[in-house]
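input
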Amino acid sequence: MNIIFFHPSFTFNVDKWLQGIQARLPEANVRQWVHGDDAPADYALVWLPPYEMLADRQDIKGIFSLGAGVDAVLKQELENPGMLPAGVPLIRLEDTGMARQMQEYAVAAVLYYFRRMDEYKQYQGQRVWKPMAPHHRKEFVIGVLGAGVLGRSVIEKLREFDFKVRCWSRRPKQIDQVESFYGEDQLSDFLSECKVLINILPDTPETQGILNFSLFSQLKSGSYIINMARGAQLVEQDLLVAIDAGFVTGATLDVFVKEPLSDLHPFWTHPRINITPHIAAITLPDEAMDVICENIRRIEKGEAPTGLVDIERGY
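output
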């Protein structure tokens, strides 16, 4: 069994991955792919792979994305058709420790707003001593856009704090004690009761720009936005307008259209916007390698892998 590996970053610890995969699959020949390498390969582990790495490998059994999202590699395929060999499974990381990180980030942001820490921060700057009652749970409805593996884990964790949670997805999902909405026809009804909106949608052509002024205007007045998915899903100028108009009180953003933010970006200094540098959930190597190697074993036994991507849907 031959496995090729590619990651473009010079700061990425390639040796840790090569050694880790080799230790988990001792029968395999694991190598870092370099330009000109056209030797046989059964599996490829990639992030932003060059066109020539995969394009002509018709006998490859599976391509593994080194992240939960596959939008980057699908964008490459769109720009360079044929980069992904036809019919070869594309497999993403579904959890690998990301679910818990997403839970932590979502809970931290929700409690920050629920306990009105954003307002106390403003008072601190004004030297105002003014205790306030927290928001009422019954009115502090949390809406989650996206009910896949990561979205469901966030919903379940928020329920542990007795918050009223509802979710929206493209297709029907059933989650205990959670109001579920799906499809474009039910989006407005979903938004109408949301005081907090958490975005964990996959990045597809349909979801790009979904966080826009029209959507913000359908939320409860003075709502909060938490974006942990992809920067392209937020129309940044629309958020600024929605805050000025009072539709949105505050936002916590982990992802952006262009990263890192430019020095002049208005989000840096906006008093109602909290930013973090794309750290809501990062790939944990050991957990990721465990899942990838288990999936390789599944494929070798003729079984379906977990995290199989529907390329037409984009996730």
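quick obs: The chain has a mean pLDDT of 94.
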